[in-house]
Amino acid sequence: MEFYQARTMLLVIFIFPALVECKVRLYNFRVVLTNTTKLCSTKSIPTINGKFPGPTIYAREGDNVNIRLTNQVQYNVTVHWHGVRQLRTGWADGPAYITQCPILPGQSYLYNFTLTGQRGTLLWHAHISWLRATIHGAIVIFPKKGVPYPFPKPDKEKIIILSEWWKADVEAVIKQATMTGLAPNISDAHTVNGQTGAVPGCISPGFTLHVESGKTYLLRIINAALNDELFFKIAGHNITVVEVDATYTKPFSTDTVFIGPGQTTNALLTADKSIGKYLIAVSPFMDTVVAVDNVTAIAFLRYKGTLAFSPPVLTTTPAINATPATSTFMDKLRSLNSKKYPANVPLTIDHDLYFTIGVGIDPCATCTNGSKAVADINNVSFIMPTTALLQAHYYNISGVFTDDFPAKPPISFNYTGNNTAMNLKTTNGTRAYRLAFNSAVQVVLQGTTIIAPESHPFHLHGFNFFVVGKGLGNFDPDNDPKKFNLADPVERNTISVPTAGWIAIRFKADNPGVWFLHCHLEVHTTWGLKMAFVVDNGKGPNESILPPPSDLPTC
């Protein structure tokens, strides 16, 4: 009855979000197993409340959000509220063994946080093992009541969640890969709002986006895929990008959206074409030799009044290795940088960090070939602790982690050159980098060509950052900073580091706690492509992390 009452209250609040102002948003999330059929095959998947994708969280800027998560499956579970700043509330961030211990079967935990200074589209997803394959959903943060969008008000809003689908049990896929030391099997299809559309050998109706002529729609596009960066395209229509990762951008028109795992893009679509049915295509991007799921997800945009069985207007998808399309899209992204929404880029730097990212091979006596694939930052492959880092930091528990993560690569070499003769072995450790409160940080994420170069979508918990520069090849510390955009760089929480290239980001460490930085390709996170920042408390309670909640799970 308690769960039913909570849902009923949410309906009153959120069916009419413009009419009702509520400071506390309450949700009950139950992790349950749900039988689901796709690709003409049925399996049981972990979901939230039996939904795939899961329920949408609606709130306003400034609201307090309470989500009671009850674990009713056999797996340990945590959920991350991807992109939520979590100012002083790191206990609610969600990554297992970083900010909390997992929620065990039969247990529950109340995630309690406030949406401070944020409005737009984010996502939530499981943050342990590969459970986020099916445990994910949208977060929609409306502006404060009476505050308009800084773009033409749409007639309607539509959520579009992109994801991947495996016929096999996803947890079995990663378990097998871990045992063998080899790369995990790729997914079998991509999905749009949980539907694959027609694929070879299996007929499926797919998702339909219904529109009316002359109306404008705000598309809230989310990439919840585990391992694939994606292109999104609607036949015959351009859309106008107005926001990424819940930060407003200067508007620009495009026919193709490039979106990495964990990223969101808000775009205006005006239904100004002839009445009919138009193909929506979601296809992968991969500009190197790494295997990828190359099945295109098919959906349709359908105008009101379209005759039944009308043939669709088709489109061509970008080539799978269409690097220029990704660069063009990323280069157009600029912060709105208005008086109300300024781009407060740190201009002076306290910590100048240079992180090389890539993959390697380490010995593994129990693996098939006596070795295993690993991934690393500055040659450190991160080892997950058995006590949550935030707990160890808060209570000053020794032996859980060290704060000596290297600021530079241990060995300097031609990172994007021919590295076939390089030693592929990495070091291992649970190592963090310590930051004083409010210090200004610059991180250059440098791709490498060891084994294979690849595009890496990197996500920073607890902060937004400004993308001040990017390039191909090796970062030049003398000349590249001269070309940095310090006026209106895009602000986001997840950014793709180009294949055999680099990205420079800046942020202010104004959020005390322990914050994860990792590749958002789940395969690379599993292999150790991750680290953590420890941000010390500042002066007084308003610059200090809050005490842990009484129901915080224990390890």
Automatic annotation (TrEMBL):
Domain (Plastocyanin-like) ranges: 34-145, 157-305, 404-538
Compartments it resides in: Secreted, Extracellular space, Apoplast
Family annotation (InterPro entries): Cu-oxidase-like_N, Cu-oxidase_2nd, Cu-oxidase_C, Cu-oxidase_fam, Cu_oxidase_CS, Cu_oxidase_Cu_BS, CuRO_1_LCC, CuRO_2_LCC
Name of the protein in its database record: laccase
GO terms for MF: copper ion binding; hydroquinone:oxygen oxidoreductase activity
Record's keyword terms, sorted: Apoplast, Copper, Glycoprotein, Lignin degradation, Metal-binding, Oxidoreductase, Repeat, Secreted, Signal
Catalysis performed (reactions): 4 hydroquinone + O2 = 4 benzosemiquinone + 2 H2O
Any GO CC annotation of this UniProt entry: apoplast
Principal location: secreted
Enzyme class: oxidoreductase
Essential cofactor(s): Cu cation
EC number(s) reported in the record: 1.10.3.2
Entry's family note: Belongs to the multicopper oxidase family.
Signal peptide (UniProt feature, chain positions): 1-22
Listed CDD domains: CuRO_1_LCC_plant, CuRO_2_LCC_plant, CuRO_3_LCC_plant
GO aspect biological process, one term: lignin catabolic process
Domain of life: Eukaryota
